[in-house]
Amino acid sequence: MASRFAIAAACAALLLSACASRVDLPAKDQPLALRVQSSAIAPGNGGELVTAAALQPGDILLTSVATLNSFGIRLGTFSPVSHAVLYLGDGRIAEAVGSGVRARSLDEVIAEEQMVVAFRAPGLDSAHVDAMRTWALSQVGTRYNTVGVMLNAPFVLNRRACELPLIPSAVSNFCVTGMAIVQLGGSRGDQFFCSQFVLEAFNRAGLPITTADPRWVSPADLLHMREGDVPTIPATQPLRYVGHLKYNPPPVITADGATSR
After folding, report:
1. Of the given ranges (15-29, 45-59, 137-151, 241-255), which has the lowest mean pLDDT?
2. What single string gives the DSSP state of each residue in 43-104?
3. Which domains does the chain have, with CATH numbers?
4. 244 in active site
5. Distance between CA 74 and CA 98 in Å, rounded?
6. Which position among 19, 83, 194, 224 bears the catalytic label?
7. What is the pTM of this model?
8. What is the pLDDT of residues 138-179, one digit of tens each?
9. 128 noted as active-site residue
C-alpha cells in the first residue's frame, strides 16, 4: 500500500510540474527507467566551484541575480537561472540586456550575479570561436528583443501541456514546434534577448546547439540541454558542465521567521 501511495504521489507531482520526461528502455544491466527534467544545479550536488581560468572562449554562462525581474523569469520557467551570457575570452563577455547587446568584463558579471555557472558546447574549435567573437562584437548596440521576451513568457507556460509525463519525445517535439510557430511568429530575428543572442552566435559560427529557432529558447532550456538532463527543446549535442564561478545558496527561513544561509 505504501509503495502504491508513493508511486501515485510521484505521478501527481509529475503531472503538476509537467516537466519533460524520457523513458529509457531496458538494456543490458540496465532496467526500465523514467527520467525527468532536473533544475538542481549547485556545488556539492554534482558540481564544483572553479575560477575564470577554467573557462574557454565560447563557453556559455547561465546566471541569476537578486532582482524582481530575475525572480519572475525563474519562477515562470521553473528554473534557477534567468540570463545567458557568451564568454569571448580574455576576461570579456557579450550579452543581450534591456539596453541592447553589450560587451563587458567577466569580473563585472561575477560581482553582480548571485550564481554564475558555465557550460561548454562539444566540438568548438578556434575557427568557430573567431567567427563567434567577430559576430558578437559586431552586434554591440543592437536593440533588445522586447517583443520576443514578452511572447516567450506565455509560450514557456503554455508548452507545458506538450511536456506531460510519458508523452513520446516525437509527439512532444511536434507539439512544442507547432505551438512555437503559432505563438512566436511575431518575434524579431534582428533583435535579441539573452539566450537568443547566444544561440545565434553559435549558428553564425557554424556550430548550432539546437536546430530550433533561437527565438524559442530560454536560459532554462539551455540549462536542460546539459549532459544527463532531459531537454524540452532537443540539443544537437548535450552541453558539458564546466563549473560554478559563483554560487550563493538561497536563504533558508527558520522557524522564528528569520533568514539564514
Report:
1. 15-29
2. BTTTB-B--GGG--TT-EEEEE-SSHHHHHHHHHHTSS--EEEEEEETTEEEEEETTEEEEE
3. 2-253 (3.90.1720.10)
4. yes
5. 17
6. 194
7. 0.77
8. 999 999 999 888 888 777 777 777 777 666 777 777 787 787
9. no
